[in-house]
Design the sequence.
DNA sequence: TCTTAAGCGAGACGGTACGTCCGGTCTTGAA
DNA sequence: TTCAAGACCGGACGTACCGTCTCGCTTAAGA
């Protein structure tokens, strides 16, 4: 992509493989349109026009606008969310949850995520892809601090990590996607506090 | 259709007031289409055709298909969810949560709710109406057992009920709307158990 | 439909019958585009844009651009070609043939006719409609002077009129559509002269 | 072509000169598509696919599908039409006209001719090439018997041959391209009879 | 003998127009 | 005044071809 590349100059058509330039332009155009005009404002024709790309080029590589948005999300997600690995468990969880809240409510990929989560309610196929390709990686990041905590003896070895994740992030997503309430740090901190309080109880 | 009676056919028009028949037919048609074909399969033209109603009649009384679905949801919701008032707090909460899970995942109004929650991600106006008219009543039902528990001394009087509701139902909605995991009774029971365990802690 | 009309002002939609305004605008736009840009320059989208009409309105009433052009031709044809009924047979035939040549080569409906004749070579359905709706009336006009001549005794009563028409106008159409040669009055006059010379022969 | 040859696969490329194999395949594919699916069914992509040839190879040597069809017609025409040179003028003309009618209505190159004549109505450039390369040779063949007749004294030396050709074949083309009527031998014979009858008149 | 440049297959690209679906507005005539 | 009916303008859909381009292979003339 950088050094040498197949060709420095823009080109149309290429026997081996697609145009990276077109791919990037499409993903960015979709992202931009979503942020600027909302999900209904994202249309294949609009993406094509803004990306300076032919509609057929989009249909050649993606099956729908949702497909484009999923790829855009996956491309962008990584750079936003890596759970911290410093300090004690409480600090790490607090940081991760508050970063997650910020990611979901304030960033462009967060907006894409919310749109895809919305569309997943309307279409089982979208739901499946959304869960596999968008939610999966996110959830893996959510598990990471807990897995490390188990390894380090900060949590009992028989902890049900899936249930723990549901307890920790469930209320967060509920606020973001359902009630629309803001998610201040006090809220995420309180979630962490309650969660950790339970781990110190003799019961379970 | 031609000869005879004042009219064999349903009446067209009514000088005074709207046609209740048309209203019901529209709401049912919208409901049915949602369940049969999903949100994208619900169109104003489709509703009109199935309800035997003119498009204009729909636009006269509703502003969009979402508006129709909200009204359909409000009409149906009541009969499904009334939190129980028997037994102790744990039992009441368990029953309510498991009923809520069933409502969201297995009933027609639950499907409407999920579709509206999805559309709320795409459109702030929908989000506002959805929260006010659909989520509000549900959330009031979620608070009810906790409010009663405070009155009866089963919970401390300074309990933050909104936060409590978020903790209790957040993971449930998260599963239903985000991860798509099933929501068995073990899950809702565990949520209640953790929640009540915390109320017995000296902290808070 | 003419005086007073259902409404002086433009309107959208009408329970009973279509918009005459839209119909006229479409036919004129098609005519204009054909003359200005040729047959390939006539597109449904182009007609719609120039007529200020939605594509669907065109598809509702016509099945293709050829369908539009046929109707445009039929609408316009009448005012151009009425064979004269003054003078003797030779004069009437000369006038009619030279008018026909002018019609085909110099007028807008003539251009439409040539385009449709061309398209008829590509599509049997177009050919059938073209012959029934465009050529038929024209050919009836071609027969008229000969029929009158038979009635008046200027031609023998057993004359094969169809063959006579082929002989008279065949070379004309051949020049216009095939060789592209000009069709001056000398040419049409000579055709008439030869044709009449034969009627004076004892043979037949 | 499969086993043994210097190469199993068809050759790709040739430093000097084009591939005759590709040329033939393209012309045949175009011919076949025209006969099977009509003019609209002939597309550059379709020709390329059926001929097993790259689109670019077509564009390298031809400028359009019409260009391909013209070359296909020229390649095929010769073998069909050579006016006979036996018997008296009447017999030779009768034979030539009835063969011409058969050629135009019943043979593959005849179908190509009709399609090109159609397209010539839509595009002046096509018209020019069509007249020069397709019609010219045919018309030369039409003149040939008349020229010979003049040489042999069967026709007066001052006969206007172009006009004679128009008279003889005009009605034939008119039937084929315009009215779509069948062209039986009686028709062509009658044309010849009338034409010759005039040459025996004192007038002209 | 070894280059090397032209012809070739494949196919991605930016476009244009297609014919369809639906949205939301408007008008009509009957009830 | 509301209703069923349905024509209207508008805009996006997904498809088919257009004509251009790049690519890597094949091949034969000439260095």
Sequence:
């Amino acid at each position: 992509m950088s050094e040498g590349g197949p060709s420095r100059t823009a080109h149309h058509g290429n026997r081996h493989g697609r145009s990276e330039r077109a791919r990037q332009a499409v993903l960015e155009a979709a992202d931009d349109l979503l942020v600027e005009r909302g999900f209904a404002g994202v249309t294949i024709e609009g993406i094509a026009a803004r990306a300076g790309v032919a509609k057929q080029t989009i249909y050649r590589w993606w099956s729908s606008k949702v497909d484009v948005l999923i790829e855009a999300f996956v491309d962008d997600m990584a750079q936003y969310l890596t759970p911290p690995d410093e300090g004690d468990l409480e600090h790490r969880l607090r940081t991760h949850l508050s970063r997650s809240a910020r990611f979901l409510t304030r960033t462009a990929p967060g907006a894409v995520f919310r749109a895809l989560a919305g569309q997943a309610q309307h279409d089982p196929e979208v739901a499946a892809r959304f869960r596999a390709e968008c939610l999966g990686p996110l959830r893996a990041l959510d598990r990471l601090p807990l897995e490390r905590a188990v390894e380090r003896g900060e949590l009992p070895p028989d902890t049900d990590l899936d249930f723990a994740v549901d307890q920790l992030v469930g209320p967060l997503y509920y606020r973001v996607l359902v009630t629309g309430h803001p998610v201040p740090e006090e809220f995420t901190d309180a979630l962490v506090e309650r969660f950790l309080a339970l781990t110190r109880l003799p019961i379970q």
About this structure: Chain A touches chain B at residues 38-40, 114-115, 117-123, 127, 131, 135, 139, 163, 166-167, 169-175, 177-180, 187, 190-191, 194, 197-198, 201, 203 (CB under 8 Å). Residues 11-19, 22, 48, 52-57, 60 of chain A lie near DNA strand E (CB under 10 Å from a C1').
